Amino acid sequence: MEIATSLLKSDSNEGESDPLDGYYKKLATNLTPLKKDSDMFAMVNEYLQNTHASTHREYSLELIDAFEVERLGENERFKTFENLHNRQLLWHGSRVSNFGGILSQGLRIAPPEAPATGYMFGKGIYFADMSSKSANYCRTSPDANVGVLLLCDVALGNMYERLQADYIEKLPKGYHSCFGHGKTEPNDSMAKYICDGKVKVPLGTATSSNVPRHASLLYNEYIVYDIAQVNIKYLLKVRFNYKRGYY
Known about the structure:
By secondary structure, the chain is an alpha+beta fold. It has one domain: Phosphoenolpyruvate Carboxykinase, domain 3. Helix content is 15%, strand content 31%. The longest helix has 12 residues, at 39-50. The relative contact order is 0.24.
C-alpha cells in the first residue's frame, strides 16, 4: 500500500492533482519502485526520451518515478504466448482516471472508456514504439500535467503489416498481431534486449522507415486481439512540461 500510494505522491509539485489515490486498496497488483540509480530506470528513461516524436513539440516528458508491475494472474496467463517469437516492450497510454481499472483488470479490448472512433485496425489493444504517441492518450494539460504510461511485454509473433487504416475483424491465418507501419520509427540498430534476450526494447532515436510514399501513418502502431498476449511490466509516472506558446 505504501508503494502504491507513493506512485502519485512522490516528487509531486503543488497544484498537481493525484486522482489515483483511492484505488489502491482494491488493486490485486504489486508495484515495486525502480531505484533511480538502477540500469533499468536508466533504460526506461532512455526509451522515453529517445522516442519522443518531433511532431509532438508542445511538451517534453520528465520521468518522475517508475514501478515494476506484477498483476495477479497475468504472468500465468501470458505463459500461453511467452514462447512466441517477436516479443517487444511497447508503450501504452491512457487517462490517469482509467488506471484503477487497468491495474485491477488488465488492459482490455474495447473498454467502455475508450473512444469509439479509435480503432483504425479493429478492436484490439494498441501499442506504440514512440513514447509521445502513447503519451498523447494520457490527455494531460498544463493545469494537470502528470500522466501515467505503461511499458508492456507484447507477444507479437507474425505481424500483419498495414500501411494505412484497415479495420480488421479477424487476422488472416498465420498472423498473431497487426503492425501499422509508420514513416518514422526507432533506429533498429540501437535496440536493446531484456529477459535473457527474449524481449526487444526499441529505444533507438527516430529515423525514417522504408515504407512506400503512399503510406499514411506517421508512426508505428502494434495491435493484438487477445488479452493474453500482453504482460504489463512497468508503470511510469511522467510529468508533461508544456511549452509556452502552445497553450
